[in-house]
Amino acid sequence: MALGLKTSGATLILDDLAARRAAVTLALTIRGTLWLAVEARRLQIVPSLRRVVDDLQKSGLYLSPILIQSALEAVGE
Description:
By secondary structure, the protein is mainly alpha-helical. Helices cover 57% and strands 8% of the residues. It has helices at residues 2-6, 17-25, 33-42, 49-58, 65-74; strands at 11-13, 29-31. The chain has a two-stranded parallel sheet. α2 links the parallel β1 (11-13) and β2 (29-31). The longest helix is centred in the middle third of the chain and has 10 residues, at 33-42. The chain is globular and about 35 Å long. The relative contact order is 0.14. The mean pLDDT is 95.
């Protein structure tokens, strides 16, 4: 987050709720890991968002089912 404060126009990738709240308070631009995965799928960097989501969940990242469904629909999966 310190680097985001020093870098004009930076976008921070944050999933921790407390960190996201702090970043919003500091008027920093934030995105989550799922956003990054969706962008990777849109750019065809990864062949399957579902597979990335499964891997993220296996590694311990909690993603709500509604958020997952919305992301999958956004990329046509």
